Structure formats: C-alpha cells, structure tokens
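Quick review question:
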C-alpha cells in the first residue's frame, strides 16, 4: 500500500537574488573582482505570480535533488498541496542556505510524500488513482513507459507538465534551436522525445519544458562545479578546441519560475518551451565567468585537441564539444517569462550558496586534466 506521510519540518519563502544586467561572452575579457550578493540568498524583487486561479492538488515525480527542491517551495508558497513521489532513499526536504529554522519547519510540514518505485507500474496506477491529483510535474521521467501508467491512473488530470531537454534537437549549423526545429530520434534523450509523442497522442493537457544546461545551488551535474574545483585548486582549466564554442546555461531558479508560469496557462496547453538564460557564452568565457563569480584570479586556460587523447570512459569536459544554444523567445512571448539571473550573478548565487560553503556533489578528479596537461607541457618544451 502507498504511504502518505506529512514531513515534519519547515518552510522558507523561496526568494531570488536578481541581477541588474546581463553578460554574454567573456572571451578575451579580464574578470578579477568577486561578485557580491546584493540581496539575501532567497530574496526576490516581487511576489511570484501563479497563473492558475485555484489551489491544486499537485504530484511531483521526483523533486528531492535539484529542480524539484526549488519548484516545491514555489508551489507550497502559492498554497498548493504538494506530494512528492520518490523511492524514499533521500530526505524529502532539505534546509537551504539562508533559511531560518522556522521557515524550513513551516515548509517541510506542508510537503506530503508518496513512497514507491515509478518502475512498479501496477503500484503507480493503484496509488495515484486512489489519491487523485489535479496536476503532475514529471521531473525525473526518462521513458514513455514510465509516464503511461500515470496517465492511465489519472483520467481527469488537468495538466501534465514534463521536464524534457534541449538535447532532443538534431545537431544543426543553424542556431539557436527553436521549438519547431528537427529532433534527433537517436539522441541519448530519445526517451524524452518518445514521452512527448505519447503526451501528444493522449487526451491530456500537457506542457513540455526543454532546458539547455541547468546550473545553480544543489546541481548534481558537474557543470559549474567542474570549473569551481579547478579554480579552487589553482589549476589550469583544459578546454577542448579553440574555446570559442558557444553554449547556454539557465539558472535553476529561473527554470522553477518557468514551471510555475505554465501551470494553468492557456497558452501552455499542448506546447513545448525552451527554457534557459537569455545570453550565450563561449567555453573560455564560461571559465572566466566562474572565476569572476567565485572571486578567483583570471584562470589559465589550456586548449587541446580531444582526438589526441584516449580518455576511455572518463569525461574530460562537462559540455558537448559544439555550439549548442536555444531561443527562449516563445516562452517570453507566450508566457511572459524571462530569466532574472544573468550569468555571472547566477554563478555567484550558486557558488555562495553551495560550493563556496564547502558543499558539492562530486569529489574533484583531475585524471584527464593531468593527461592533457602533461602532453601539452611536453609539446610546449
């Protein structure tokens, strides 16, 4: 049987530190002074507006690691009843930097937990049909067969909001990617494509969000953390190719706001939206932006040709070695959503609330760096 348990701890009002300006490409720009937080860690410029007109009974599939942590706080703040469906292997809520004990206790006491394995399809059907939900936020769904039991269990569902990925787009020389661009059925995100196709085929009101690279506090993917480890150790930063490859990052709090924006929004019905930052940045520029955000000296950057090395199964760089960025014009026009973090202040938010406090998800591993640097230094001699 499913277990519904009210978590006994607290509520922070999720508040964002908002930047006054945007920076795009730091290629060739010297960045040396640290970025100072101008507001409290969770402070926002104004009240967040939820377009849904009534309190909803909301189920979040996942929600304990990264995106869901911030999304849950926004939904609870707006008065929705939120249940997280997880295997129960991790704490359902966690206190965030800058939150008081009282705020956290209030938040946690309002979050419900449904324990189970989403791969156990019969359990999912029975548990969800018994509870009934108005809206589902699917944060961790990777395959269409994981979603079908949820739709079967909730025939009266008002909205299914899915976290897809901009990685579904077919590689192209024409950028940025738009929501109407060709997709790659062979990509490693093909499961998300199949899920979008399933949602289109079913009689359900759905919305799909396609983030590019996500960063921010609690990030379990080695995005900004990869750079911070090397900056803290005072090591050169190895970057493949010329370093002018252009990419795009979006802050997790801006992504959470986008998820709120589509809730009950008529223009979000059966639509896909790219969500990321408003600016693009080169690989070299990102290294400098991370240094600026953490108050480190301008880094030494070493370029290398990946074809000259056999890294085996090790990953030498956290980004795909290509231009990769997407237009967020549709979300801005249709939803009235715009990102509130520029890149440097967003990275500073991540550093100050996470890595700079000594917390991170993965230990530093400089194995591939040493392979690159030893060969580079030999060639230089």
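Suggested answer, residue by residue:
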């Amino acid at each position: 049987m499913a277990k519904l348990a009210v978590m006994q701890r607290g509520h922070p009002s999720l508040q964002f530190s908002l930047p006054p300006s945007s920076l795009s490409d730091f290629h060739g720009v010297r960045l040396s002074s640290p970025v100072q937080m101008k507001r409290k860690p969770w402070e926002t410029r104004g009240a967040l507006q939820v377009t849904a007109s009534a309190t909803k009974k909301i189920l979040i599939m996942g929600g304990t690691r990264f995106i869901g942590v911030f999304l849950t706080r926004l939904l609870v703040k707006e008065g929705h009843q939120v249940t997280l469906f997880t295997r129960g292997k991790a704490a359902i809520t966690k206190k965030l930097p800058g939150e008081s004990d009282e705020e956290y206790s209030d938040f946690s006491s309002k979050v419900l937990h449904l324990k189970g394995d989403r791969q156990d399809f019969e359990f999912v059907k029975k548990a969800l049909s018994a509870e009934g939900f108005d809206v589902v936020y699917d944060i961790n769904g990777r395959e269409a067969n994981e979603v079908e039991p949820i739709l079967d269990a909730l025939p009266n569902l008002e909205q299914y909001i899915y976290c897809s990925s901009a990685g579904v787009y077919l590689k192209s020389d024409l950028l940025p990617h738009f929501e109407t661009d060709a997709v790659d059925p062979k990509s490693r995100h093909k499961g998300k494509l199949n899920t979008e196709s399933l949602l289109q085929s079913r009689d359900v009101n759905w919305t799909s969000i396609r983030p590019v690279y996500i960063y921010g506090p609690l990030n379990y993917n080695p995005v900004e953390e990869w750079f911070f480890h090397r900056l803290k150790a005072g090591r050169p930063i190895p970057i493949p190719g010329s370093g002018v490859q252009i990419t795009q990052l979006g802050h997790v709090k801006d992504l959470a706001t986008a998820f709120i924006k589509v809730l009950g929004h008529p223009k979000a019905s059966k639509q896909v939206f790219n969500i990321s930052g408003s600016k693009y940045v080169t690989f070299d520029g990102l290294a400098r932006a991370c240094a600026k955000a953490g108050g480190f000296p301008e880094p030494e950057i070493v370029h290398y040709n990946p074809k000259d090395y056999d890294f085996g199964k090790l990953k030498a760089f956290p980004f795909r070695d290509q231009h990769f960025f997407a237009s967020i014009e549709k979300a801005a026009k249709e939803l009235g959503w715009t990102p509130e973090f520029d890149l440097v202040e967003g990275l500073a938010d991540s550093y100050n609330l996470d890595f700079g406090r000594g917390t991170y998800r993965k230990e530093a591993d400089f194995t591939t760096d040493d392979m690159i640097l030893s060969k580079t230094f030999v060639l230089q001699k």
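Why it works: The domain at 7-373 is CATH 3.40.50.720 (Rossmann fold). The longest helix spans residues 367-380.
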